[in-house]
Amino acid sequence: xxxxxxxxxxxxxxxxxxxxxxxxxxxxxxxxxxxxxxxxxxxxxxxxxxxxxxxxxxxxxxxxxxxxxxxxxxxxxxxxxxxxxxxxxxxxxxxxxxxxxxxxxxxxxxxxxxxxxxxxxxxxxxxxxxxxxxxxxxxxxxxxxxxxxxxxxxxxxxxxxxxxxxxxxxxxxxxxxxxxxxxxxxxxxxxxxxxxxxxxxxxxxxxxxxxxxxx
Length: 215
What we know:
Radius of gyration: 20 Å
CATH architecture: 2-Layer Sandwich
Helix content: 25-40%
CATH superfamily: START domain
Distance between the termini: 86 Å
Mean pLDDT: 82
Shape: globular
Number of domains: 1
Number of helices: 6
CATH class: Alpha Beta
């Protein structure tokens, strides 16, 4: 029995899309969106916490504001805190209790190494491993399989905000590897891109213009 042409064409297109997503070129793009070659390969704080990860992504964005304007938005991130500045409705499908704040929340501005932030009611807690104000913030999951690092680098435009994920997937099955490659990795770009742009928009919006002194 012959397959109807529209169905066959649809399956062919789906196969081509999957092949493209699986390609090395596509993978490099969605694992290093916005980052320069130096940022992608260079060392960041927290790299030593999970050497030899199964997955590493490095993504970045330029913010037209100094690190001092970016840091408050970073430090208040989290479940039941300032949210993740991404697609809340997607996060909350997994019960993560994310509600992205549009203002700086004073009650969440005092983060310290050793604090554990919840990742929803069932997720592994995220322990603060590095907290260098206006420079670096690094979390590690309590199960040790995920390190998430942020670095703020001053530049001519203001700040380069760099985000790196290092993830271990012990003994994954071939099906798990396939799902990670075709679904989880591209999906992480969608969410993290929105997060980085969300922080950029908020920091630039709240940045006070420079005071011009009279001559």
